[in-house]
Design goal:
The protein is mainly beta. 6% of the residues lie in helices and 64% in strands. The protein has 3 helices and 43 strands. It has a 43-stranded antiparallel β-sheet that branches. A hairpin with a 4-residue loop joins strand 41 and strand 42. The longest helix is centred in the first third of the chain and has 35 residues.
């Protein structure tokens, strides 16, 4: 029994020992296995945790949708103790949009994540790519280059906002650029480049050229498709440069998702467009430029203080206005100016560019509230200008022979030829003012400005000199130059000959008188003119009576009618022809032709000359039947004597003011009350200057016949020479066997012959020298 118990105890000990041995063997094996494994390093002081792979996701819990705001992944992270900062390496930040079809991607080699405000900061390089599609485009769909930004020292948060103050570069679908400092806000879709912005924009058109964009700062507003350059911006495309303040660039989707520059707006802006044969410079307080598919300017609009200068090889054209629009057409690789419109105090100045061997034309200045200018093919020169409001065209001389001229009117249309030389000018409600040229003033210092008015006007210009060659004005035409005036239904000016032709109801006048006719042709330089058709003229007497040349009444206007009239030497020499009628007061001359010379103080008439001269007889003698001592009372009772008319018919008349002598020739007939004289030549001596045209005496020569009628007899005298004195009623006959036949009413006839015969009608006296009388009774 005892033996059995020891055996059992021995067996138990053996089992326990065996189990212990096995345990020790296994423990030794496990110890060796543990010794073979790498033991982790203990966490540094101040570090809560670390990992070789890290992932974090933020969701939007405000609306309960669980929308993912951001996902951050990193190859390595370390979390600082009690700092709320996680240092990451190999960082990638995904920021989905609200639709979930696109996201913004941020990559950085290293960054620190701050848990409290959910933002990251990367001291090193950062690349931000905007609006990446979640699903790549299918085959055949256009691939779009997203906006990509590279910089360093970037702060960005899980909402997608990012910013830096360091040098940045960016790439977008149509180009790339650089700037100092940048920021992006996905909530507003605004990308902001802070300083020193330079962008190379590459449009996608088939003929598109690189456009360089520069500015103080750049703000890209994705939602509005706009780019804002502040405080200044500049765009350069080959020969075109536009620069201004607060430049706003408008982008447009081409329908395939591509953004293209379609318009820019700028404040206090200016631009240039330079080509080998032309240059365009423009500016305005507000400037707008529209672009086509190729990035070329198609329209430029300037508002407030708009200014345009277009320079070609021959002309510089300057345009100023409150509002200016420039339209362009694409010819080859150039934007060619086709037309310009302006409004509000518009002024267009076209000035010739000096060139060797080429005389400059006049400078033209056109002013109007609204203007429209069209360019010739190639955009180098003007084709036409039109005003849609009252305007003024001013010509400024560049040579001594050119005139300073101003044309006022409405609805002006100006056509231009080569070298911007005016070809024609049309307008309504016109007024022209032309100053004498410097050359003309050298010849005549007293030459005055000429002024014309009319309802319509058409002017033509010499294409070689730009000087006006001809002008037509119609509709109540008016003209004045100093004291010279004219009116007509229509007028034409020939500038080369300085001739003005007045047509239909033409009339002109000056300080010396006036002339009306169907047509008047006037030399503008000298004032000489020719009037034709229904001519009526009125010439005033000279202020100095001694200079009056009229044989009529010198103190009254000289009136005349004729088919034609020519005036020269400042109206001192006048020629009338064609059924001429001339009169002063009651005195009258008729002839086929009359020439009046105020300078020589004479008159010549030809062809069917008829003069009617009225004289007022002297009435200071007492009545014939007054008794002695009653002369004065008889004189008071005496009735005024009737005027006496002297009528002379002759083929030819010459009057000389110096001796108040009128010489009639070619077969003369003189008639007065009670007296008729026939002769080949008659010399009529008029009363001295200042008196009326009273016949003082008359000398007749050649087959003279004088018939004198009285109440009691008729006396007929004949001779080769005769003299008649009106005051004495004296008739003197000599030469050619003078003879006087007196036939009384009773029938008694007395014939007297002699060498000389003198008869006094007042007292019926007859003086005979070496003669005899024969009495024949009835």
């Amino acid at each position: 029994m005892r033996g059995t118990r020891w055996l059992l105890l021995l067996i138990i000990v053996a089992i326990v020992y065996g189990i212990g041995a096995r345990y020790r063997a296994q423990r030794i094996a496990l110890q060796k296995q543990d010794d073979a494994l790498v033991k982790p390093a203990p966490l540094p002081l101040g570090l809560n945790s670390s990992s070789e792979a890290w992932h974090m996701r933020e969701t939007d819990t405000h609306n309960g949708t669980g929308h993912i705001k951001a996902e951050i992944t990193a190859d390595d992270f370390k979390e600082q103790t009690d700092s709320g900062r996680v240092d990451l390496k190999g960082v990638t930040l995904h920021i989905p949009n609200k639709k979930g079809d696109a996201y913004n991607l941020v990559k950085s080699a290293a960054a620190s994540y701050f848990k409290d405000d959910h933002h990251l900061y990367s001291e090193g390089d950062v690349e931000i790519t905007l609006n990446l599609p979640v699903v790549p485009p299918a085959a055949g769909e256009p691939k779009r280059t997203p906006i990509s930004i590279k910089s360093s020292g970037v702060t960005y948060d899980t909402d997608g906002r990012a910013q830096t103050d360091r040098a940045s570069s960016f790439v977008f679908e149509h180009g790339d650029g650089t700037a100092t400092g940048a920021s992006y806000d996905p909530t507003t879709h605004q990308l902001f480049m802070k300083n020193d912005v330079k962008v190379d924009w590459k449009p996608i058109g088939p003929h598109a050229k690189l456009m360089k964009i520069e500015g103080g700062s750049l703000e890209y507003r994705e939602g509005e498709s706009e780019i804002l350059l502040q405080p200044w911006g500049r765009l350069t495309r080959e020969n075109t440069v536009v620069e201004g303040e607060n430049v706003l660039i408008h982008l447009q989707d081409d329908g395939e998702g591509h953004k293209e520059i379609r318009k820019i707006e700028a404040v206090k802006a200016h631009g240039t467009d330079t080509y080998p044969n032309r240059k365009l410079v423009y500016s305005a307080d507000q400037l707008t430029v529209d672009f086509d598919d190729d990035g070329k300017a198609s329209k430029i609009t300037g508002q407030t203080n708009a200014h345009l200068v277009s320079t070609s090889a021959t002309t510089e054209t300057d345009v100023t206005a409150n509002h200016v629009e420039l339209n362009f057409d694409q010819q080859g690789n150039e934007s060619v100016l086709t037309d310009v419109t302006s409004a509000g105090n518009s002024v267009v100045t076209s000035k010739p560019v000096p060139a060797p061997g080429r005389q400059p034309g006049e400078t033209h200045v056109l002013r109007s509230d609204t203007l429209e200018m069209k360019m010739r093919e190639g955009g180098h020169e003007i084709s036409s200008m039109v005003t849609h409001a009252p305007g003024t065209l001013e010509f400024l001389p560049n040579l001594p022979s050119q005139h300073h001229r101003i044309l006022d009117g409405k609805d002006m249309v100006i056509a231009y030829g080569p070298q911007n030389r005016i070809e024609s000018f049309r307008a309504t409600n016109v007024k022209t003012m032309t100053d004498p040229s410097a050359d003309e003033l050298k010849r005549d210092k007293n030459r005055k400005q000429s002024v014309t008015t009319s309802r319509d006007m058409l002017a033509h210009f010499d294409p070689k000199t730009s000087q006006m060659s001809s002008m037509e004005q119609w509709g109540d035409f008016g003209y004045e130059q100093g004291d010279r005036h004219a009116r007509a239904a229509k007028a034409s000016l020939d500038s080369d000959k300085n001739l003005i032709l007045l047509e239909t109801s033409a009339r002109m006048w000056d300080s010396t008188g006036s002339t009306s006719a169907d047509h008047i042709r006037m030399d503008e330089r000298s004032g000489d003119f020719i009037a034709e058709g229904g001519v009526t003229s009125s010439r005033l007497p000279e202020k100095d009576e001694k200079k009056n040349s009229q044989m009529l009444s010198g103190d009254q206007p000289l009136q005349a009618q004729a088919r034609k009239m020519e005036s020269s030497n400042h109206n001192r020499t006048i020629h009338y022809e064609g059924d001429v009628h001339m009169w002063q007061g009651a005195n009258r001359i008729q002839a086929s032709v009359i020439d009046l010379d105020r300078e020589k103080r004479g008159l010549v008439a030809d062809g069917n000359v008829v003069t009617n001269l009225w004289e007022q007889p002297k009435d200071d003698a007492p009545a014939a039947d007054a008794k002695p001592g009653q002369e004065k009372s008889a004189q008071k009772k005496k009735q005024p004597a009737a005027p006496v008319l002297t009528v002379v018919h002759a083929p030819h008349l010459v009057y000389t003011e110096a001796n108040r002598l009128a010489v009639y020739s070619g077969g003369v007939v003189l008639s007065r009350p009670g007296l008729n004289v026939k002769a080949k030549v008659l010399q009529a001596f008029l009363a001295e200057s200042g008196a009326d045209s009273r016949l003082e005496r008359a000398f007749a020569d050649g087959a003279v016949e004088i018939v004198q009628n009285s109440r009691v007899a008729t006396r007929t005298g004949s001779a080769e020479h005769a003299e008649y004195y009106t005051d004495e009623q004296k008739v003197y006959l000599k030469d050619g066997a003078p003879k006087l036949v007196e036939r009384k009413l009773s029938g008694k006839q007395t014939t007297t012959d002699g060498d000389e015969l003198t008869y006094y009608a007042n007292d019926d006296r007859l003086v005979v020298i070496r003669g005899q009388s024969r009495i024949q009774r009835k």
